[in-house]
Amino acid sequence: MATESMLKFVGVGQQYPAKRDASARAEDFREIADRYGNPAAEEQSARCSQCGVPYCSVHCPLHNHIPDWLRLTAEGRLREAYELSNATSTMPEICGRICPQDRLCEGNCVIEFSGHGAVTIGSIEKYITDTAWEEGWVEPLVPGRARGQSVGVIGAGPAGLSAAEYLRVAGYEVHVYDRHDRAGGLLTYGIPGFKLEKHVVTRRVERLKAGGIVFHEGFEVGRDASLDDLRAKHDAILIATGVYKARAIAAPGVGASGVVEALDYLTASNRKGFGDDVPAFDDGSLNAAGKNVVVIGGGDTAMDCVRTAVRQGAKSVKCLYRRDRANMPGSQREVANAEEEGVEFVWLSAPQAFDGTEKVAGVRAQRMRLGAPDASGRRAPEAEPDGDFRVEADLVIKALGFDAEDLPGMFGAPELGVTRWGTLRVDHQNMMTSLEGVFAAGDIVRGASLVVWAIRDGRDVSERMHAWLKAKVAGERKAA
């Protein structure tokens, strides 16, 4: 099909896959929209302007070849589109589902700037790879020629899984250690099924296992082995644990029963979806059914919590955030989805205390206003005089983000260098920590961030590790 099949953004309007009715989707944890049919995907891909400077690719952390696979899709060359999409990403269908495209590729689309509405890049990316799985185009992971060296990866989240795949293809024996009983990290236990159905993650993990990557699930470094033990076993180590320490709220009553951490809440819900026995869910501690729920925070984790609470049958769901809608860190699309599903947002509000004797009964909060910009450039929230108010709550979920755990203490490795934020200190040229042969990537280095950045870091660190391991062999041969 010729180039004139493109540039249809003037005559063809932007159209995302249809979302299910809000009342229907609030009844289950299925993804809220189906994917395109083939004609619709081709038509939406043909809206790409094929601009000379593809800002969509520039603003994608993976620098995906977006205009090229859009053109191939528009021309009906879907298998080629998949192969090109897969060339830069180990998980394109996952990024298509959970990336905040409105802040990355689509938010920087040239035709978005012209007022025609961005190309629906994420939905097309999801369509391409889901079709590839169905058609059998996703090939098995084929290990490279064996190098006689092994790598240990600590953490089976997106950074660890991506690095493990690239290193296995390069010919290394790869062992992945994770404290959970299923691989995937936050992809498995942190993100709800209505954004990322779990079979999408499971099939990726199964492909890695079939390719000879050995998974040690339920394995906790510091309990089952020290970091030194793993260093002695492997030629190189990658730490890709992510950040899991919940940020605290300093307010009276915060320790009351019914005030819970976001990740505990989401993990319980996801485990229930797998059919696991979850006592804290079954006894109501981590179940929103019939309760007045208040979620504190304005990021994507907070959006996951409010929308999960709706699906669990909460009596009411409110989200308290100290800034306004325009200044919230979470995806605006997720806010819109939550509002459609019945969530009430209480903007410019901050918790001051939690009421209740044996159990939380309400949140005392303060109205806020935005003052002068802070060090980050965002306008800092300030308390409004006489702005006190109260919200009833039977369940309060704290979703204020995550910090790094004390890995040197947990791993029995006090010499492991950290920054003042607790993240691992690395040499950014080779991504190695203060310990020779121990590398780090993902959120444990950059702080809480996006899945797409974790995948990028996994790709980058695999290249650095490969170079270091080759140099190590060369050095040993020279010494011999």
TrEMBL record:
Keywords, in A-Z order: 4Fe-4S, Iron, Iron-sulfur, Metal-binding, Oxidoreductase
Statement: the UniProt record of this protein carries the keyword Glycoprotein: no
Gene Ontology molecular functions: 4 iron, 4 sulfur cluster binding; metal ion binding; oxidoreductase activity
Dihydroprymidine dehydrogenase domain residues: 25-136
Record-linked Pfam families: Fer4_20, Pyr_redox_2
PANTHER family, alphabetized: GLUTAMATE SYNTHASE [NADPH] SMALL CHAIN, GLUTAMATE SYNTHASE [NADPH] SMALL CHAIN-RELATED
Protein name as annotated: NAD(P)-dependent oxidoreductase
Gene source species: Sphingomonas gilva
